[in-house]
């Protein structure tokens, strides 16, 4: 599905579940370009399906938060500079506020997931086997508990239309080689720690997140895609987490969990998913906005 726009100077080449990709209009068909325009739509996906309606304003909120994080990680927070994929700030007016011009990178097929807290699919696996992605954890943890140490739980980034699957660290070595696998892991853990500390200072918990990296023409590893957004991460309110007694109270989310929870309760994952009720759409956009305001304040 695509609601690709006509954008002077650019041509549409691909639509993912959430983003539409464009290359400069003079790029020969089938050839890759040095730069890409990545437009975040208001589409929302959960369990790998795109839902309707979209979430009005979501593309802009996520782009603003992503750009803010790229800037922080590029050194605005006083830390070490993490190379990223941003290439220009001259965004076409048609998509102002919800697009980035990026270097087209050779993307590594690993979704670099870091978890500081136990929930979601990690919690489900822990209940089954006491592990998360094969990593053994202490006994007696509850849904939403903080892990003793953040853990790196990579997934294979499946080609278009297929489901991503959790893989072991050893499998990432098979995919990208030893040196790069270690770089992905170490850099992901480092960025997570830095971002989680920044979130904590704003009364927020960064429970988990997912990064994607790619290589530029000089072989430099760059942080790509979106970063630390409410689509790619779980954020909770730290005060609620401390005092809450039920999972719902502890994990007061600023992220897509609102949509996932509603869908899980109202769809058996067969056939077309039901439309999102207006109340869920409004709650989601309000929480995405609140996260952006609190994080960037
Ligand atoms: P799918 O592509 O399987 O639908 P998705 O839903 O994650 O996955 P989107 O997030 O909507 O896709 O689209 C963004 C796409 O652009 C992703 O496939 C992502 O890996 C890719 N991407 C992000 N940054 C870059 C970059 N700098 N260079 C090349 N590809 C990139
Ligand atoms: Mg994506």
Automatic annotation (TrEMBL):
Q: Which Pfam families match?
A: SAICAR_synt
Q: Which InterPro entries match?
A: SAICAR_synt/ADE2_N (IPR028923), SAICAR_synth (IPR001636), SAICAR_synthetase_CS (IPR018236)
The record ties this protein, via Gene3D superfamilies, to:
ATP-grasp fold, B domain (3.30.470.20), Phosphorylase Kinase, domain 1 (3.30.200.20)
Highest taxon of the lineage: Bacteria
Q: What Gene Ontology molecular function terms does this protein carry?
A: ATP binding; phosphoribosylaminoimidazolesuccinocarboxamide synthase activity
- Record-stated family: Belongs to the SAICAR synthetase family.
What is the protein's given name?
Phosphoribosylaminoimidazole-succinocarboxamide synthase
The scientific name of the source species is: Microbacterium barkeri
Provide the organism lineage as a comma list. Bacteria, Bacillati, Actinomycetota, Actinomycetes, Micrococcales
């Amino acid at each position: 599905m695509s609601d690709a726009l006509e954008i002077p100077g650019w041509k549409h080449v691909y639509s993912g579940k959430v983003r539409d990709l464009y290359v400069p209009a003079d790029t020969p068909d089938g050839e890759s370009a040095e730069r890409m325009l990545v437009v975040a739509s208001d589409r929302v996906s959960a369990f790998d399906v795109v839902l309707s309606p979209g979430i009005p304003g979501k593309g802009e909120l996520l782009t603003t938060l992503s750009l803010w994080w790229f800037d922080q990680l590029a050194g605005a927070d006083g830390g070490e500079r993490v190379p990223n994929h941003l290439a220009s700030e001259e965004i076409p007016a048609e998509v102002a506020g919800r697009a980035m011009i990026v270097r087209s990178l050779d993307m590594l097929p690993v979704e670099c997931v870091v978890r500081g807290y136990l929930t979601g699919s990690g919690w489900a696996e822990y209940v089954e086997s006491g592990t998360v992605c094969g990593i053994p954890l202490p006994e007696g943890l509850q849904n939403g508990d903080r892990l003793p140490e953040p853990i790196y739980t990579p997934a294979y980034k499946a080609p278009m239309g297929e489901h991503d699957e959790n893989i072991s660290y050893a499998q990432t070595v098979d995919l990208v080689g030893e040196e790069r696998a270690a770089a992905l892991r170490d850099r992901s853990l480092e960025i997570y720690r830095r971002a989680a500390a920044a979130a904590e200072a704003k009364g927020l918990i960064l429970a988990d997140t997912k990064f994607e990296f790619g290589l530029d023409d000089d072989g430099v590893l760059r942080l790509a895609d979106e970063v630390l957004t409410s689509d790619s991460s779980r954020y909770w309110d730290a005060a609620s987490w401390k005092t809450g007694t039920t999972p719902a109270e502890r994990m007061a989310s600023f992220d897509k969990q609102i949509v996932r929870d509603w869908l899980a309760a109202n769809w058996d994952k067969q056939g077309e998913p039901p439309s999102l009720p207006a109340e869920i759409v409004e709650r989601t956009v309000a929480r995405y906005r609140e996260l952006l305001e609190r994080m960037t304040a």
